[in-house]
Each structure stands twice: as C-alpha cells, then as structure tokens.
Fold this sequence. Notes:
Residues 304-324, 337-367 are annotated as: Disordered. The chain is built from eleven helices and 15 strands. By secondary structure, the protein is of the alpha/beta class.
Amino acid sequence: xxxxxxxxxxxxxxxxxxxxxxxxxxxxxxxxxxxxxxxxxxxxxxxxxxxxxxxxxxxxxxxxxxxxxxxxxxxxxxxxxxxxxxxxxxxxxxxxxxxxxxxxxxxxxxxxxxxxxxxxxxxxxxxxxxxxxxxxxxxxxxxxxxxxxxxxxxxxxxxxxxxxxxxxxxxxxxxxxxxxxxxxxxxxxxxxxxxxxxxxxxxxxxxxxxxxxxxxxxxxxxxxxxxxxxxxxxxxxxxxxxxxxxxxxxxxxxxxxxxxxxxxxxxxxxxxxxxxxxxxxxxxxxxxxxxxxxxxxxxxxxxxxxxxxxxxxxxxxxxxxxxxxxxxxxxxxxxxxxxxxxxxxxxxxxxxxxxxxxxxxxxxxxxxxxxxxxxxxxxxxxxxxxxxxxxxxxx
Length: 395
C-alpha cells in the first residue's frame, strides 16, 4: 500500500497543546507543524544523545517485547508495521481507527521505542531506540480530544492496573507507562501499586514518565512514584532539565524529552515535548539491555541504568535528572559484567545472633561444644519429662 508523505517542512515552534491533565493522562504535547518525512532522521537528536547507534553494534532489541499502555497503536504505520503485536483494548469504546482522536499518543510512543523507518534502506521516517523490538499495545486511556474521554475516566478507572497485569501475563519484557496523574489531587492507588509489584515479580521492567508539572508545582505523579518503577525526567538537546519536567525524589534517570520527532496515524510527523517521550526512550534502552542480557532482573537493570548514566548531577543525583542521562551503549556494555541475582534466604542481623558458625577448626577448644550442647539438651529434656509427670492434672 502506498502511504502518502507529509510535504510541509517542520515549522517554527508554536503554542503547545499539553495532554498531561488531571486524572490518568498522557504526558506529552505536540506542536501542530509537521515535518518532511525524509528529513526526519537528521532531527532525531535523541538517538545521538543516548548513544543508541553505538548500542546497535551489539543489539537492536530483537526478541524483546515492550508493552505500551496508552491510547492504542497504529499497527499499519509504515514506521511500525511488522513490529506491532495483537494487543488488548481495556476501554472498549471511544474513537477508532480512522478517527482523528485515536492512537495518536500511543503511536508516537511506539515510534520512539521501536520505529524502524521506511523507504529505501529504511532511510525515511522515525527510527526508534530499539528498532527490532516488538510492541504490545494495551489501550488503557483515551486521547485528550476523544469525546468519550470523560466517560472512560469514570467507568474504566481500573484499566491501568488491569493492563499492567495483563501485559505481565503475556510475557512483556518491558512495560512502558508514558502517562500519569500529577494533579494536586494525585494519590497512590493500591490496585495500581499491587499491579506494578506483580509485574516486577514476573520479571517485567516498568518504566514511567515522571510528570510534566515542573512549571505547575512539581506534584507527585503516579505511577512514576510507585516502588520499583524507573521514573524518567526530561532533558533538552543541551542536556539541561526541561522546564516542564517534574522534580521529585523518585526520579531515576533522565532522557531526551524536548523537540522529539514523533510518528502519527495521519502519516505525518510531529515535534513534541514531554516526559512521555523521555520514558519511551528509556523503555527502548531497556529493550536493548534485555535483548543483550536476558538474564538480568528488573532490579539489576534499574541499577545498571543509574550506574552507567552520564552527566550525573553534583552529589550523584538530584530530583531533576535522577542519576543522570541514560547511556544505551554504556548500559549494554556494562550489563555483560553482571550475573543474575542469587536468591538468598532472609537472615537476621549478627547484632542479635552473632556471625554464625565458622569453618571447622579441630585446633581450637570449640570442638567439644557440639557434643556438650547435645548432652545438655538430653538432660534438660529428661528433666522436663519428670516435671511434667509430677504435675497435678488440670481441673
């Protein structure tokens, strides 16, 4: 099928239309100007910032599945075709394929994660961080412009938690949550928190956008603030914290999130900003790490991204950028030096119970301790039996 290309050049920045609103929402804004399809690659500064091409010498994400919990994904987009698996719609109503308010945000995030371009040698369109990874779309929210959005918010409030569990049960290696609630009334939901912990235990790495509240009070955003989540803040092309990016204690790492070129179901390319795009870039990075080192656990991968991040803030981390800018190549390379976590039984502190037995040493005086303790135990047991037999019966 011949797909028409947008022919208008990417224009100057105009007023931004934010999608990050109260209740679970996508954290991205799109600029209305479109870009010439075959000029996209030169504008994808984020790939260079992440050192993605260096990582591609090892892997491009083949064999890894990234669940995109969002507004849906256009599986027929030329930059995504063959990379999108059959997913699940947990909303069940609202706009559909062909309608303007359908799958825009989800398609944009999927393109950042696993776009593979199109045309001769895939030289046109958007290239994602992990172009050989598979996308598992899970529709858990509606677009900002969907007339049914209000209905979905009131009747499908549990879709996010359900979607996280479903994605984990399908074997997703990475779960991308480029969405969140960073309103003043934002609060943790027990079902969502439990779903995140369930996914982590199943081996899925959970990545979420930190929020776009940097100029609106820096309110805590969920699901980014749930334990175990890799929460991603946004930086601009100069490596500085993007003004809109939320600053909070849960920030793990940062990634490109400003002036990001995104694919759209209308077959045009838009320039956007938001921690949504930054989270998608990190999900792509995790896909590369997972492809190269499938034995690593979610905890190890989170720590790996932190330890290999570049441009770390003074003191090692801060609430603006976490541990620094994600480096895909460094993470893939360093992952080869790690082994799978060993399962260890819970142990009490030696403060109360001492360090435990050491190597057997026949030259020390401790050799008699075991037999002596055994004999003492027999005597105590015999005494206990005699005392018990001598008790008066209970009445």
